[in-house]
Amino acid sequence: MSVLRNVMLPWSEKFASVMLRQVGSFQTSIPHARCCPWQLMTKQAFASSQPENVVYAGPSQASPKRVTLRTLRTKYANQEPISMVTAYDYPSAVHVDEANVDILLVGDSAAMVVHGHDTTLPITLDEMLVHCRAAARGARRAFLVGDLPFGSYEVSTAQAVQSATRMLKEGNMDAVKLEGGSSGRVSAARAIVEAGVAVMGHVGLTPQSVSVLGGFRPQAQVADEALEVMQRALALQGAGCFSIVLECVPAPIAAAVTKALSIPTIGIGAGPATSGQVLVYHDLLGMMSHPHHAKVTPKFCKQYASAGKVIQSAIQQYRDEVASRTFPGTAFSPYKIPDAEIESLARELRARGLEDIAKAVEEEAQRQKTHA
Ligand SMILES: Nc1nc(=O)c2c([nH]1)NC[C@@H]1CN(c3ccc(C(=O)N[C@@H](CCC(=O)O)C(=O)O)cc3)CN21
Ligand SMILES: CC(C)C(=O)C(=O)O
């Protein structure tokens, strides 16, 4: 009971008594505290494994206003362009969020740009969920969309709903995206929306269909195909999608689809006439500037920086400074020890017959002083 009282200290007496009632038979099970339900309610009291100054997910300033479906609808109604960028982890999400980008997409392009696969097919739902959770921790404002990966929604509407709900429950996303507009995909989209999850559609080049498309090729370059893309987009809108990604289609086709729909289109390689634009984080940053990677960056990607070159040269410089012993030097060796302690340590070492080691200590202490 005394242990419990300590735990309760930050809480009011009243709240504590309510909690004690709820705790009931758990009162004596402190050693099993990890599985006690009230542990969840006393996060602060149990946070002994947290550093005092939490950097990544700690208490933050007042949160900025979140982008919601209403915000997006208003932007669309006012014909204001909607911006979307992908992110896959905490730091990339912070970058995207701080730039006031409207929608943060945790894309299955992670399979390629993060995991190094040649297509988006190998990434699993469980892997996507790890990316989603990390990205969600970094985003305070952006509307969060999680990409349903290949194999997580094609089998049945039940499978689609199950995967989509996991994206919200375990991935902390606000909505999901799925690819394609065939009847099966439209049914999946409808079922997910009916389950209460907002869905973004995706037509044109759908990279998860690379097997049947025979490569990452521009789509809808003949009238028949263009009409089909438009029909699919309309069907997805009918199923309740809040927005549709249009990938790798000629600009006039994107204009037609955008005109035909009453929900926003988000273009990538689809020209300027869409309601918004999306780019992959690594592409827009020029992260893959190495010739080995340059070939996987599509032609429609504008590089707003050469981050890859900056990173490469920084690591090269670090490596050179380690090799030449320029780093860390005294400037980056911050931990000091008083002279008296050095003398005492050297004395102890000599008393144990360790003359060489005592010398090493004294020499380095001297070097630190002369280069300070
Ligand atoms: N880094 C990256 N950026 C993306 O935009 C992106 C991914 N990865 N992975 C998932 C999909 C695949 N995407 C791609 C990939 C390549 C092309 C591309 O290079 N297309 C060529 C035509 C290739 C052909 O005809 O075979 C082009 O000329 O644009 C287009 C879209 C878009 N998505
Ligand atoms: C390219 C965007 C739209 C995407 O689907 C992804 O990043 O996976």
UniProtKB/TrEMBL annotation:
Q: Name one Pfam family in it.
A: Pantoate_transf
Keyword Transferase included in the entry's annotation:
yes
Xref: InterPro entries: Pantoate_hydroxy_MeTrfase, Pyrv/PenolPyrv_kinase-like_dom, Pyrv_kinase-like_dom_sf
Q: Which domain of life is it from?
A: Eukaryota
EC number assigned by the record: 2.1.2.11
Which GO terms fall under molecular function for this chain's record? 3-methyl-2-oxobutanoate hydroxymethyltransferase activity; magnesium ion binding
Q: Which GO terms describe its biological process?
A: pantothenate biosynthetic process
Q: Which UniProt keywords apply?
A: Pantothenate biosynthesis, Transferase
Q: Does the keyword Transport apply?
A: no
Q: Name one GO cellular component term.
A: mitochondrion
Its UniProt pathway annotation is: Cofactor biosynthesis; (R)-pantothenate biosynthesis; (R)-pantoate from 3-methyl-2-oxobutanoate: step 1/2
List the catalysed reactions.
(6R)-5,10-methylene-5,6,7,8-tetrahydrofolate + 3-methyl-2-oxobutanoate + H2O = 2-dehydropantoate + (6S)-5,6,7,8-tetrahydrofolate
* CDD domains cross-referenced by the UniProt entry: KPHMT-like
Question: What functional role does this protein have?
Answer: Catalyzes the reversible reaction in which hydroxymethyl group from 5,10-methylenetetrahydrofolate is transferred onto alpha-ketoisovalerate to form ketopantoate.
The family this protein is said to belong to: Belongs to the PanB family.
What is the official name of this protein in its record?
Answer: 3-methyl-2-oxobutanoate hydroxymethyltransferase
